[in-house]
Amino acid sequence: MKTLIKSIWFSRDLASATLLTLIILAAFWIFLLPLNQTVQKTFLARFHLASSSFPIWAMQQPIPSMYNFENRVWISPVPITQSELNQAFSKGNNSNPRIGLPATHLTNLKTIETEQINHFPTRAFTFGKTRWILKQQSEPRYYYLSSRYRDVEHNSAFRLSPISERQFGVTRLEPLSD
What we know:
This protein is α+β, with helices and mostly antiparallel strands. 37% of the residues lie in helices and 21% in strands.
């Protein structure tokens, strides 16, 4: 590594120096992941398309997607209240995604689809199989996403409404009330 840096320094190869700098910065950012909650929150927001700015989102794109986050998705034909979401997102809830939301809070558990996704839970409605299922529906669907890394969680809610056979609208929902 020392020889590589000397070689780049003496050759004044700006492209190589820039690439090496970006690699070092990405490695440092990944190294900080288990140590810093701000970095953890930034990584989790990226997976929910909720980065605080475009430059922050863009800077993270070269960094590989991590498989060490717990990403869960609940899909419902009706809105779910905040208390139901809190119980679903709570750490005490069984981590088996097939169990879904607790039956004590929903009258019709069969209408709620659940799945666990390795990374980028928004894939459930951008490129995943549920996008195809959504396009077959005539009514809106509500997507609730939860990602967790250690003690840090990021939760999001979206309403997806069919516009035509080939399109649907995506609306990020504000925190729901009971």
